């Protein structure tokens, strides 16, 4: 479990990139539509940071080639991306936002939040 920030420090419509350590790629955490989502930060098409992308509802658009990813599943919804990005569970405990890095890649399967104060 990786602490991200206090929930008031990630306003609606914003994102933050976190380093998850040597074993995991950077993770992008988003606050949109009243929920928090976490996915791998690197676009599966090319090496662009998705935390620098544009949010529209539960979707983020890659800033490099406009591939669109569903934050709930990690699935791309248009070309040029064809492969999903991993999703990670997000929890809020006492106002603090945490990411639980996925340890298993299951393309197309969302990772469900831990039983604490689940957000997304």
TrEMBL record:
Molecular function in Gene Ontology: 3-phenylpropionate dioxygenase activity
Q: Could you tell me the EC number(s) of this protein?
A: 1.14.12.19
Mind telling me which InterPro entries this protein's record contains? Rieske_2Fe-2S, Rieske_2Fe-2S_sf
Alphabetical keyword list: 2Fe-2S, Dioxygenase, Iron, Iron-sulfur, Metal-binding, Oxidoreductase
In its keyword annotation, does this UniProt entry include Metal-binding?
yes
Family annotation (Pfam families): Rieske
Residues covered by the Rieske domain: 2-99
Q: Which CDD domains match?
A: Rieske_RO_ferredoxin
Checking SUPFAM superfamilies in the record gives: ISP domain
- The name this protein goes by in its record: Bifunctional 3-phenylpropionate/cinnamic acid dioxygenase ferredoxin subunit
């Amino acid at each position: 479990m990786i602490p991200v920030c206090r929930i008031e420090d990630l306003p609606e419509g914003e994102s933050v990139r976190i380093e998850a350590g040597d074993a995991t790629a950077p993770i992008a955490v988003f606050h949109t539509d009243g929920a928090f989502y976490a996915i791998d930060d690197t676009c599966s098409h090319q090496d662009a940071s998705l935390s620098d992308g544009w949010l529209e509802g539960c979707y983020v658009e890659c800033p490099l080639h406009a591939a669109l990813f569903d934050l709930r599943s990690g699935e791309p919804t248009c070309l040029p991306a064809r492969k999903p990005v991993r999703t990670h569970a997000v929890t809020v405990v006492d106002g603090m936002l945490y990411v639980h890095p996925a340890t298993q890649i299951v393309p197309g399967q969302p990772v469900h939040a831990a039983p604490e104060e689940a957000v997304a």
